[in-house]
């Protein structure tokens, strides 16, 4: 076998291995019978990222690509990635990312292209069968601790959580907390990440949650953890329809403000852990309703956050080390099964 044939064979083997490893990514198990699958949608997802070298030297850079993950309600496969991936890595929270190496001259722009096949199952928990159980201590210990963005020792947040959402049932707690956060959300696009301490703002007559989906999720997770309810955030996209194109120009986002919502659907939402359901999605902004365990197939999960942080829903899709991310584009073509 000649060297060209060997290279092609190795690239094909790497691509097959990547698809297999992403397929084997860990998923939270839900006991059968407690969840009703409402819809199944198969997506072709095509992503494009433009990286630029704004330094005065040639750069050989490692670039991390967020991949659609495998969860209880999502199956993901890599179809192609160009330039090819060097390897797949798993971060502290179990997310699988692709790693590639690119070289760029000063001022040069590099295009990264990717294609995935993703099957999403929209679901609804059958709360009439069980109001949920409080998780065992080992789970509570891991998922209720303080982190950089979730200050569970903020006494104001703790007092608000107990007054708004204390309940005997974890599902009741989750629902009351969703209602509280949603009713106090003052929505505006935030290009950074405030964290729960700064997202909670005192105004005349009480408190508001100021920011976008990231701040709403951070405040929710902090308050849930303060109540002993294991919680984390999920990041990805929320589509308005099964077929949609979205884009983000990083050089203009600051001046666009809320207008970028017209062409971008990066999203973050909370999850709570409630046996026997497992991880339950709480997306308050999908339909602006405080539903717990009502999950549409218009979500695409690219990762979860428990201890590892990627900044915001704007920058987590492609993470260079030294190059600058200039442009992000996704096209979703979904077919309901």
Give an overview of the whole structure.
It is a single chain. With 337 residues, the chain is of the alpha+beta class. Helix content is 23%, strand content 39%. The strands form 4 sheets. Strands 1, 3, 6, 11, 14 and 17 form a 6-stranded antiparallel beta sheet that branches. A 4-stranded antiparallel beta sheet has the order 4-5-2-16, covered by helices on one side. A 4-stranded antiparallel beta sheet has the order 13-12-10-15. β4 (87-90) and β5 form a beta hairpin. Mean pLDDT is 89; it is low at 9-14 and 16-27. This is Transglutaminase domain-containing protein. InterPro entries: Papain-like_cys_pep_sf, Transglutaminase-like.
What is the topological layout?
Elements: H1 3-23, E1 35-52, E2 59-66, E3 74-82, E4 87-90, E5 96-104, E6 109-125, H2 137-143, H3 155-165, H4 170-183, E7 185-187, H5 195-199, E8 200-203, E9 206-211, H6 213-226, E10 231-238, E11 243-249, H7 253-256, E12 266-274, E13 278-281, E14 294-295, E15 299-305, E16 318-320, E17 324-336
Parallel strand pairs: 7-9
Antiparallel strand pairs: 1-6, 1-17, 2-5, 2-16, 3-6, 4-5, 6-14, 8-9, 10-12, 10-15, 11-17, 12-13
Helix pairs in contact: 3-6, 4-6
